[in-house]
């Protein structure tokens, strides 16, 4: 039984990393721009579809496909931020949420129009085929790669935010937008950069998922809701919290499937509700 | 203005009652859906427009109403009983969960209602023994409207009685809500929206009022939900999903949150837009999403305010 649980933990951990990549961008955008972006999941979905097209359909190199998808989704991010999101920072919450929801509708139907409504799954890259033998069970190489990639992104984000000048500007404008503007930070440009960066993180999550997870029109809305749970658990706008939250949700999901399949989804929302009721600023909030 | 409003309303009601005389089944079916969405969104707007709370879990209460009604109809085919049960189920769920939700405001309230709504969704989706899982509940009869020993009306799909049933109850529910908003209770809610602290200073328990408002919104969601199973003969989990919670939010913002009729106008426009676009393309949500985005960026007051402030003076001036 212990072995089974340990193994399930590893599976949960690899699932956590997709969630982490999505939630990182979501919480970053909320922390800096102040907008809770429902459409963030759509960017995840677009990343998956773009990679599917480059890698699965056109047969390009896997890494090149991921890189190209990041560029594409980043471009969409620029359009979204400059034309639309920029105008809603100052307006009431319901309008912000519903605008981002409008983009979910647009992107969901757009992918149906372009790629059709069927779920698709491209072949695994040759060099990832095969399994490790962990505790007497086969554990795919690819999952190990995902776990490493997720941790690498977490370290990179930490380095960028804590150690670089750009990170300092982001932190400054997150804590006081006006003051940051007064000392000469170009806030609109910074916001665009942050939004695009977050969009690319989401796209990376989607892109990395393509060889193992299904590519279908609904994945954006299904993932974003779990990313919401994560950002709430970790505290809205808190990156460290998002990382821990992603691991909690991922592992809880994988245990849930094994131990109490009926309440697998239910339990996640129970955790979310409890955190909101007891400590609304999140586990890592101040 | 007031007289014109009265005549417009009268004309609308006469129109709705005489609709079956000159229109086909499809129009009646759509009209029932408009009524369902109107009742759903009006209850929602009691929270958003009057109390200042944005709930993203209303679909959960809608689903409670729909599933409760469906369960009753499967056991005991009596329409009135089904509707009542649905209403009570919605209200009860909202009362219990509201107790936990109303301590928070703004985004935390929205997130909390979202999580409760999704809990109901996950039960509807996974708890196969009770809810039928992802197949939902099927074969729900359109039960007769009857009070044993007094009267019984057959709700045969070929007749128009079910349309009248939904119409009468919806109009009644809308009228009651209208009266409620005009009452001191409604004014207190508006007061809470404007300034929570001042209302608290006046010695009013803000939390109790919020809870009551939340419960009423749940009751209306449950009522709207209970209209669905006899119409469609099935209920499925997507009606509890958070994307369905966004529907009342959209139509309310479309119509305008600061007017009573906003959600109704929004619902009508929602179905008209859908019906028109669907004739040209099956991907109507792209266009609807674009309309939503345009609306948020360009006129946030909603259609009703737009008509009153911009269009009405033009007509009056001539």
- What percent of the residues of chain A sit in helical stretches (DSSP H or I)? over 70%
Shape of chain B: globular
Strand order of the largest sheet of chain B: 1-4
Major sheet of chain A: order of its strands?
1-2
Distance between the termini of chain B: 15 Å
Distance between the termini of chain A: 38 Å
Biggest chain contact: A-B, 41 and 44 residues
Number of helices of chain B: 14
Order of H and E elements of chain A? HHHHEEHHHHHHH
Walk me through what this model shows.
The complex is a heterodimer of chains A (286) and B (318). Chain A has 286 residues and is an all-alpha fold. Helices cover 74% and strands 3% of the residues of chain A. Chain A is built from 11 helices and 2 strands, in the order ααααββααααααα. Chain A has helices spanning 2-33, 40-57, 62-84, 93-115, 141-163, 165-175, 177-182, 187-209, 219-234, 239-259, 264-278, and strands at 131-134, 137-140. In chain A, strands 1-2 form a two-stranded antiparallel ribbon. In chain A, helix 2 packs across helix 9, helix 5 (141-163) crosses helix 6 (165-175) and helix 10 (239-259) packs antiparallel against helix 11. The model of chain A has no long low-confidence stretch (mean pLDDT 85). Chain B has a domain at 24-238. Chain B has helices at 2-22, 25-51, 58-75, 79-101, 106-126, 128-131, 161-182, 184-194, 196-201, 206-232, 242-255, 262-280, 284-298, 303-317, and strands spanning 137-138, 145-147, 151-153, 234-235. Chain B has 318 residues and is mainly alpha-helical. Chain B contains 14 helices and 4 strands. Chains A and B meet through helix 4, helix 9 and helix 11 of A and helix 5, helix 11 and helix 13 of B.
């Amino acid at each position: 039984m212990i072995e089974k649980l340990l193994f399930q933990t590893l599976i949960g951990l690899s699932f956590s990393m997709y969630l982490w990549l999505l939630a990182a961008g979501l919480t970053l955008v909320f922390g800096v721009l102040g907008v809770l972006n429902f459409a963030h999941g759509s960017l995840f979905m677009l990343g998956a579809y773009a990679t599917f097209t480059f890698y699965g359909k056109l047969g390009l190199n896997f890494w090149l496909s991921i890189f190209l998808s990041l560029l594409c989704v980043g471009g969409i991010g620029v359009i979204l931020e400059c034309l639309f999101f920029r105008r809603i920072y100052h307006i009431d919450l319901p309008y912000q949420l519903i605008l981002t929801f409008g983009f979910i509708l647009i992107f969901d139907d757009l992918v149906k129009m372009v790629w059709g409504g069927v779920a698709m799954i491209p072949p695994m890259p040759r060099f990832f085929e095969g399994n490790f033998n962990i505790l007497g069970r086969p554990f795919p190489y690819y999952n190990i790669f995902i776990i490493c990639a997720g941790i690498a992104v977490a370290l990179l984000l930490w380095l960028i935010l804590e150690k670089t000048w750009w990170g300092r500007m982001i932190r400054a404008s997150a804590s006081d937008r006006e003051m940051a503007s007064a000392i000469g930070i170009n806030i609109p440009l910074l916001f665009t950069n942050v939004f695009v960066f977050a969009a690319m993180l989401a796209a990376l999550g989607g892109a990395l998922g393509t060889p193992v997870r299904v590519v279908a029109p609904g994945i954006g809305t299904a993932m974003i809701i779990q990313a919401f749970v994560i950002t709430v658990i970790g505290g809205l706008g808190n990156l460290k919290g998002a990382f821990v939250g992603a691991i909690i949700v991922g592992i809880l999901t994988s245990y849930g499937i094994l131990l109490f399949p009926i309440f697998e989804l239910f339990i996640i929302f129970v955790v979310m509700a409890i955190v909101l009721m007891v400590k609304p600023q999140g586990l890592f909030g101040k | 203005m007031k007289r014109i409003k009265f005549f417009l309303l009268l004309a609308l009601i006469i129109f709705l009652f005489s609709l079956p005389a000159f229109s086909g089944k499809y129009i009646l079916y759509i009209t029932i859906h408009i009524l369902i969405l109107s009742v759903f969104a009006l209850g929602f707007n009691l929270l958003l427009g009057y109390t200042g709370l944005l709930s993203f879990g209303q679909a959960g209460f809608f689903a409670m109403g729909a599933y409760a009604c469906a369960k009753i109809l499967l056991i005991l085919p009596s329409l009135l009983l089904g509707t009542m049960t649905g209403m009570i189920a919605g209200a009860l769920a909202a009362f219990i969960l509201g107790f936990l939700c109303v301590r928070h405001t703004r985004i935390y309230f929205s997130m909390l209602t979202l999580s409760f709504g999704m809990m109901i969704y996950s039960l509807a989706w996974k708890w196969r023994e009770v809810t039928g899982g992802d197949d939902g509940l099927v074969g729900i009869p359109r039960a007769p409207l009857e009070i044993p020993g007094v009267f019984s009306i057959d709700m045969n799909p070929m007749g128009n009685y079910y349309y009248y049933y939904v119409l009468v109850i919806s109009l009644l529910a809308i009228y009651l809500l209208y009266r409620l908003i005009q009452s001191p209770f409604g004014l207190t809610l508006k007061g809470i929206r404007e300034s929570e602290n001042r209302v608290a200073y006046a010695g009013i328990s803000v939390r109790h009022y919020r809870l009551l408002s939340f419960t009423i919104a749940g009751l209306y969601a449950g009522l709207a939900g209970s209209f669905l199973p006899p119409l469609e003969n099935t209920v499925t989990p997507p009606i509890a999903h958070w994307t369905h919670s966004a529907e009342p939010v959209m139509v309310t913002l479309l119509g305008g949150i600061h007017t009573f009729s906003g959600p109704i106008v929004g619902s009508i426009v929602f179905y008209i837009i859908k019906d028109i676009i669907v004739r040209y393309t099956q991907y109507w949500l792209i266009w609807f999403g674009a309309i939503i985005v345009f609306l948020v960026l360009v006129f946030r007051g909603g259609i009703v305010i737009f008509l009153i402030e911009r269009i009405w003076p033009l007509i009056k001036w001539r």
